[in-house]
Design brief:
Length: 641
């Protein structure tokens, strides 16, 4: 077997460069038609899954039906609400009426039997060409407004969870029929390994998980004919074979993509494997390793993004829950890591169901049973608590109490929760823990709220491939409350790339120097500008209880020409000039802004989720001094503006 063949069939045996070459070479040979592809599934691949495929349809349906009550309980805990059943039914009925829930909106799309449903961008109408999956992007010359994430989100099939559960609750066959209809349509339009919906592997893993969860709820329905179940289990095995052949942890580098692939393999084993299977133990070992790598010691996602913390948390929680349902329990260390992730999620939430947006936010979810707020973490926390219960975590009572903590102090992020405000101060270093593609240029930036109303915000993401300029604008230092020296980025943006960074990486840290009832004093330092300007930045964040104020004091050592600072404000805020400063009102919160900076009111873009952008106000501050102050004074009565 030559090097390219070894790379294709055993990716870990050769360097990643040769593996990519192998994929493209094989793709060039067989991309002319789907028929050329089916050979990849014959022979060696089908032999690997022969034992799985020999299992009777009755036994698979029986196991799925046995799993359904426990899965229902997990989902009820994840979406804890008094009107759970009515919300599930309402969401399921929307699909019956022809509305598909994608990226936070109900969209009227063509029928699932059409190529347009799966392979056309619902905004621009661009129709994707069908090729071997690894060359799908090269084969599609996409303009800046077309975004492949839109069709990926549809193909995740998260919208099938509500109708499948509604069938389980009501035994109304109409809900099972719509689930079967969509799965069969996908299998017909996008055959194994063929087309853009089979790349990257994370998308395959998330889709497989949602297909299997939906199948568990409808397995006893009349719509689940023997013919459908035969096609379904073959497709499930093909999904797992794809995940085996194209792992997304090249070079041992962990990412949310690899975790999505792992979750798909776990869902397959939950449905197919017998109790005590060696595959369960291997999957648990890999899952615990990913939990240690991707969740830091204090509970944050290693890339610093709160949105990706939710996505990673959901994938970990659901994976641990699925393994527990088959009797494979996580150890105390893995449970502790998940518990810390739950506490962190609560700490960075400034209201009951509102999370601070820090870093990238592409609205990614592992599952989504019913719609919720763009930055809601309710489902993740409920899912994590359900997973911990199933894994017999002994300290659940202590965990519930720790959710009321008022402060988180680490060298990478500090969160202070007071009666009058909630503030987060961040210093996540790009690439320090591995990948840094979902960080922003936000070292020593801050966000805060007053009375549950956001005042200073992070701008979010808006888009990746659909609008590269917007993507880079929103991750720029000039869209964050960080100081820029001489107009430079903290880490240079490579403008023909939407991920990754250029020059400027440096060390950053945060320390708490005072923590009393009256005062909280935080100090942050970064040297990310030092290699290009010789300057270091030191920022002090001082919260004072008596004056209800937040003082931001910036000092720069070294020689420079100018400093600049952008203060992004929430789009619901009303801003008015007041003397040499400004008044900012959002809801019942009224905040005065003043300082030694020269400030000017301007506009920018804010995104609360993927493809969800709106204009917002911002304050642009400039200075040539080495030392500058910015003061936010919280005013009791906000009705005077």
């Amino acid at each position: 077997m030559n090097r390219l063949s070894r790379a294709l069939h055993n990716p870990k045996s050769v360097p990643s460069y040769f593996m990519r070459v192998a994929r493209c070479k094989m793709g060039e040979k067989i991309c002319a038609s789907p028929e050329g592809y089916k050979g990849l599934w014959n022979g060696r691949s089908i032999a690997r899954y022969s034992t799985d495929l020999e299992k009777s349809i009755d036994s698979i349906c029986r196991r799925a039906t046995d799993l359904a009550p426990e899965l229902e309980t997990v989902l009820r805990e994840a979406y804890e609400c008094v009107d759970f059943s009515s919300k599930v039914k309402s969401h399921a009925n929307c699909l019956l009426e022809g509305y598909t829930y994608v990226l936070g909106d109900y969209r009227s799309l063509s029928g699932p039997e059409t190529r347009e449903f799966w392979l056309s961008d619902y905004v621009t109408g661009y129709a994707y060409a069908m090729t071997y999956h690894s060359i799908a992007r090269d084969a599609n010359r996409i303009d800046d407004q077309t975004d492949i994430k839109r069709i990926w989100e549809i193909a995740r099939m998260q919208y099938l969870l509500a109708p499948s559960l509604q069938y389980w609750l009501s035994k109304d066959e109409v809900y099972a029929r719509v689930v079967v209809r969509h799965i069969e349509a996908f299998l017909a339009v996008s055959p194994y390994d063929y087309g853009p919906l089979w790349q990257p592997s994370m998308e395959v893993g998330i889709r497989l998980t949602n297909m299997i969860l939906a199948f568990c709820f409808i397995a006893d329905s009349e719509s689940c004919t023997r013919e459908f179940v035969e096609k379904f289990r073959l497709s499930a095995a093909q999904h797992v074979e794809h995940l085996r052949r194209f792992p997304e942890n090249l070079g041992g580098l962990s990412s949310n993509h690899h975790l999505g692939s792992l979750m798909g393999r776990i869902s397959y084993s939950m449905l197919i494997d017998e109790n005590g299977s060696e595959r369960f133990a291997n999957l648990m070992s890999e899952l615990k390793s990913e939990a240690r790598k991707q969740i830091l010691w204090f509970g944050a996602d290693y890339e610093g993004s709160t949105s990706y913390h939710r996505l990673v948390g959901e994938m970990l929680s659901l994976s641990f829950a699925m393994l527990a349902l088959r009797g494979c329990l996580a150890d105390e260390d893995a449970c502790e890591r998940m518990a810390k992730a739950v506490v962190y999620s609560r700490m960075v939430s400034y209201a009951a169901d509102k999370q601070f947006q820090i870093g990238d936010n592409d609205s990614g979810r592992a599952i989504q049973l019913i719609p919720d707020r763009p930055n809601s973490t309710r489902a993740f926390r409920g899912l994590a608590l359900a997973a911990l219960r199933l894994n017999r975590y002994a300290r659940l009572d202590e965990l519930e109490k720790s959710l009321n903590n008022c402060m988180l102090l680490t060298d990478k992020i500090a969160v202070v929760r007071k009666e009058y405000t909630c503030l987060a101060f961040t210093a996540f270093d790009c690439l320090e823990y591995g990948m840094g593609d979902h960080c922003h240029n936000d070292l020593l930036s801050f966000v805060f709220s007053v009375g549950g109303n956001a005042i200073v915000v992070d701008p979010g993401t808006g888009s990746y491939t659909g609008n590269p300029k917007l993507r880079n604008d929103l991750r720029s230092i000039h869209s964050h409350s960080s100081v820029s020296i001489n107009g430079l980025e903290q880490r240079e943006l490579v403008h023909d790339r939407i991920f990754g960074w250029g020059k400027g990486y440096g060390k950053s840290k945060i320390a708490c120097v005072a923590n009393t009832e009256e005062t909280v004093d935080l100090i942050g330092e970064t040297d990310c500008f030092k290699s290009r300007t010789g300057c270091r930045l030191r920022r002090e964040v001082l919260l004072k209880e008596r004056s209800r104020s937040i003082l931001i004091h910036d000092e720069v050592d070294g020689e420079f020409e100018r400093l600049s600072l952008t203060i992004p404000l929430h789009p619901d805020a009303i801003v008015k000039e007041a003397g040499s400063g400004y008044l900012v009102k959002n809801g019942s919160a009224l905040v005065g802004v003043s300082g030694t900076w020269e400030m000017l009111l301007s506009e920018m873009i804010y995104s609360s989720g993927y493809d969800r952008c709106r204009p917002t106000k911002c304050l642009i501050a400039k200075s040539t001094r080495h030392s500058n102050d910015l003061r936010f004074t919280i005013i009791e009565n906000g009705s005077s503006l």
